[in-house]
Hints:
This protein is α+β, with helices and mostly antiparallel strands. The chain contains 31 helices and 18 strands. The chain has a 7-stranded mixed β-sheet with strand order 8-9-7-6-17-16-18, with no helix packed on it. The protein has a 6-stranded mixed β-sheet with strand order 10-11-12-13-15-14, with helices on one face. Helix 1 packs antiparallel against helix 8 (220-226). The longest helix has 34 residues, at 238-271.
Amino acid sequence: MAGRNRKQHSQQPTGCDRLVVDASYVAAIHTCLALAAFGSALLLGCALHFKKIVRNGVAGYPDEWFPSVSATIGDWYPERNLFQILIAITSGPRFSIVFLQYLLNRQSQSSLPGWVFLCGVIRTLSCGGWVYVTSNDDHDVHDVLMILYILCNVPWMLGGIYCTPTGHTESRRRRFFVSVIPMIYFFVQHKVYRIPGAYTWYSFFEWGLILLDILYDSITGIDFERSQLQVSLAFLDKEGISLPGDVRSSYLFWSIVTSLLTTLFYFSIWELGFSGSEAALFVYLSPALLGITPLRQWATTMEGRVTLRLLSLIGLAAYKLDDPVTRLFVVGGANLFNLVSHCADWMAFLGLGLILSSLSKHANHSNNPVWPMLNEETGGYNRMGIALAVLALLELGTRPLAPHHTSTTSQKGVGTSSSHGRDTASHWLASSIALGSLFFTLHCLLSDSSTIVAWSWTGYESRKPRGPLPHLYGAVTILAQSLGLLIPVVLPSSMASALLTHIAWFAYGCVSSFIMYNFRNWLGFAGGLNLAVFCMSITPSVISQAAANGFNKPGRTLFLAFLLVIIFYVANVFTAAYAFVPGGVYFRERTDLVLVAQLATMSLAFRWPKTRFGRLGPTLRSSRATAVYTVAFLVVLSLSSVLVTIFHWPVIGPTPYKPGTGVLNAGIWTVHFGFDNAGRDSQRRIRDIIRWLDVVGLLETDLHRTVYGNRDLTRVITEELGYYVDLGPGPNMHTWGVALLSKFPIISSDHHLLPSPHGELAPAIEATLDVHGTEVTVVISHNGQEEDALDRELQSKELARIMAKSYPQPVIFLGYVVTKPHAPRPAPYDFLVNDGLMYDIDPHDRDRWCEYILYRGLYRTAYARVSRGIVTDTELQIGQFVVPKHGFNLINQTEESRLLRAWKEQLPEHHVCNSVVIPLQYTYGLSVVADGVLW
């Protein structure tokens, strides 16, 4: 806060400690930093790159012998980097000067100071624009922002002089405007008449303009001093200091907890069944150790908190371990310390930590940047995460000790009931069950912003998606989560308690769940958003009930809660279990029952009529300061999610690899749920290998389950390479997932659940693409395994029907079939080729089993199998096709014409794709078996 200092003022600050400084120091700091920024850039530039920075499009040294501002600050290292760092530091004092000048000159009878303030803000922002968008980056944008900056200087200076109190204007009359005239003259001589040496004289006046501009702002220090303007800086109270550390700790809690499932399920994927690693799930029962009174008492001391959380950091450092088994043991041990530490504090700030975790995944292409399954090569920011964790521990360890120990839930503003008497203690069972159900629901549906988007996704219609896309609308989920958590914070405690434990609020959550489960596209997404609001809003209430009712015996309360969490984890996985997984048949395709069980167990946290528990709605209590800081934190997280979305928003639409040639490169790849052979995320390695393909079918891609980390496997590829994406059937469709990536516009797409009376559901996507002006149907499928012959036969017949119905239009089939080439019926091959009216891309290739590419109505020009790398255990198959001339249908092609060979030297260049397409650093141990001219 700032205000004018009067001699009679003798008020002492109350509440927080305050530092009062003269506002003139702000202007002095700005002047020093600005002069240092421009002066250091000029000196370094002349010393290191003199001849380079004086050269321009007309002439060089010796005709030009003094550098321009743009060339000095924007062309070369290190002067450019040092200048940008210093100018970033200068922005704070510069904005402060704009605000303080408005505060000094504001008048109730005039709006001029407000307009001057607006011009000052635009002037400062445009300055940042031409500083960080250099002439080498975008010459036009740089010039426009520079001109805008100069134009804003006119009202800023004239308005500032006019608004300045009488008697001060003499010190502010600087001849800024005079320097503009010769600068424009010499710029015209250089740009229009191209006279050598004119740019040097232009540069002199340009530097003069910068210097006078800085000196003009420095004079505000005189105005501030004469007006006795002072700035009062209030130090944050203990809540303001501790809240960021607590939220960071909660974020790390979620990061470590969610990393265990992804680490252990890697082994289950490789075994295609129980591998023994599932025993690590019992680590989630470690909060039962808090039933040991000495351990619980020590865990709630400062020493215990710091020690346990320090030990849990081994889970972050596990990213250095290349052996998946060792990594699992380390992550399991980290979760033991992590759960005991945070459960001793009753998981304070659980909601804020979850939102921050979801935001970090949204910013990092759906991967938590500190997961041990990531490293520097696969998109991890593990070192930064460890550094943030250490800072949080340092802040925690240096907090002043409270005068007496109280329940942590009260300290953290989670909420507690008014007593811990016999009545509340008798209901520990209900609150424990509700806590376990809520914890799983938060993890299952809200730990990633795109999960409820995947639940609602159905594809494209009329060239537009029917519903939200995850990389564009994930931020809306984070906004809904923040809104939900705001409700118990901003409402009066008694009102929040009455509302959030009322059965009407529970009915709202049930209706939201019903809409999310039963409807698709925007309506289903809206239901998911409302469910996010509901779950986040009741989080403080549910935790406070568990803390109050389990105060005397937290071990049993937390043991039962996390036992229920484990049961839900297993049930959630088994809804899409393979046919050969023991026990999978009982839960397969029953997400509805799991969701009903979640809501039923969560209902125990609400006040029902004619029950003793219904009269015990706990009062949500938090200090006013904690509430204010929580609101501020939620606003920052919400705005950050929007900024992340804008940053990732594609600027240029997808374009084919060889536009205008009629060539289409297509591929099919089973990517093993996004895990490479070492148990790390494979998104970036997949991106590096498929970057030159126009159409890609990815199989085993539905990762929106807890055991896969609730990830979106297509995020890196779509945001960095530019693809249209169809995510395929969502997690509520109980498949292992199939996704379509296309450089060509998707006209329409439909999702199919192929007949599966015995085994797991088999997904398929039928999409119509605009390929160089020709409509081409692409069918991608993941058929069932060998265990169910009837399923395979029915699925093959349905796929054949889908492909045959559009005959003779062009069709490409990219599928996981599991059959030998030319195998007789009831094997799938004959159904797909003969009944589907398709051609095998290479009928002479007998060394295939899982993946197949079929086609019709196109010229087949190449075929390759890229296999045996470290990205996954399944090969990538690639086919290159050429669309026929518009209006011409290819029918009744002979095998000789379809498989016609030619030397690549005899073909147009755009039909040849040499092996340099995949650089050596991107091969990842791949080998290639090719036919045609692809390689």
